[in-house]
């Protein structure tokens, strides 16, 4: 096999995507493992509703671990922002250059020009003063 030369920029981007994937896998393990372990424990050691304090404690632990596990679905964006400078630049470009300018043009800042009120232009492009 002939080894092809890969550009430095391509290697840097490959390294960044590898780091991003590695961080995502670590976050998934850290956030999903406690919930999985708790569910295994809860299935093997059930508690009855006749013991309200123990039942309430288990419900609290269940809600905490379920909340941590649900972070898996929303944390990717923030992890990628932290781990990748290229991703940060792209997000900044999209938010500032595209979305902010569109929002600014649509809602906030209208054309602030002064125009005369009593002037009408006829078909010959001559200015005729409107008579009230």
From TrEMBL:
Transmembrane spans: 21-41, 61-82
Keywords carried by this UniProt record: Membrane, Transmembrane, Transmembrane helix
SUPFAM superfamilies on file: Family A G protein-coupled receptor-like
Protein's UniProt keywords contain Membrane: yes
Protein name (Swiss-Prot/TrEMBL): G-protein coupled receptors family 1 profile domain-containing protein
């Amino acid at each position: 096999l002939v080894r092809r030369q890969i550009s430095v920029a391509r290697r840097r981007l490959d390294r960044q995507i590898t780091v991003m994937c590695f961080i995502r896998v670590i976050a998934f393990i850290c956030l999903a493992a406690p919930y999985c372990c708790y569910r295994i424990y809860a299935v093997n050691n059930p508690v009855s509703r006749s013991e309200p304090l123990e039942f309430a404690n288990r419900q609290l632990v269940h809600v905490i671990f379920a909340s941590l596990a649900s972070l898996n679905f929303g944390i990717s964006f923030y992890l990628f922002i932290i781990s990748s400078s290229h991703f940060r630049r792209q997000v900044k470009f999209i938010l500032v250059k595209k979305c902010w300018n569109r929002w600014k043009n649509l809602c906030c800042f209208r054309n602030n020009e002064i125009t005369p009120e009593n002037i009408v232009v006829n078909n010959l492009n001559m200015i005729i003063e409107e008579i009230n």
